[in-house]
Amino acid sequence: MCADTSRRIVLAITGASGALYAVRTLAALLAAGQTVDVIASEYGRRLLVEEIGPDARLDRLQDLLETKYGQDVRRGRWTAYSNRDLGARIASGSRGADAMVVVPCSMKTLAAIAHGLSRSLVERAADVMLKERRPLIVVPRETPLSLPQLRNMVACAEAGAIVVPAMPGFYQQPRTIDDLADFMAGRILSLLHIPHSLYPVWDPDGAPEP
Ligand SMILES: Cc1cc2nc3c(=O)[nH]c(=O)nc-3n(C[C@H](O)[C@H](O)[C@H](O)COP(=O)(O)O)c2cc1C
Fold first, then answer.
1. How far is the CA of 109 from the centre of ligand 1 (A)?
2. I want to staple 99 with a disulfide (CB 3.0 to 4.6 A). Which of 19, 24, 29, 135 is the partner?
3. For the segment 41-63, what is each residue's pLDDT rounded down to a tens digit?
């Protein structure tokens, strides 16, 4: 696996459950030396606080990242953008990012990406990824799923996005919620071809007998 150490990656946080996946992914991208443009929707910000606590507010997040994940997060840098700022550089195809992750991705944002609505910076930056044929990873979270939601996942996949449902595996024998978040963040980094050690490589020889 080759290391990409100088890419600009958009991390969009929307209002689905699983804010910890976003925080873990951001920490891992930073520890890998990436430049990250963070956009949180209104409900994305709300769920950061409701699920993790007030220290996950974007204006306090750097301290939380350093305390929880260590000083390695200082290898990268991140900037927060307003979801209303459609004039931000990542809204532009010529000046946009190299890749984008929407984690967690609400069904509302999934629908907007599937139909190219581009009303907010999250939606526009995702649309840019699709039209410029750059990697777009969406991590939807909802259960159960309606037929329109399933169709929107298909539409995103047909448009070129990689759909990575928030479905952590249990074959790594996770013991904590952080282990589950590590798994999802690790899958995301792997898809971006960024080396990581967020979970051990699965060894079928070491697995218990079925
Ligand atoms: C506590 C809470 C949990 C939610 N969990 C989900 C969820 O898991 N999946 C989802 O699609 N929407 C969920 N929602 C609803 C979305 O936040 C809502 O549809 C919102 O308008 C999404 O907007 P956004 O995509 O701009 O963030 C949740 C809302 C709240 C308040």
1. 9
2. 135
3. 999 999 999 999 999 999 999 99
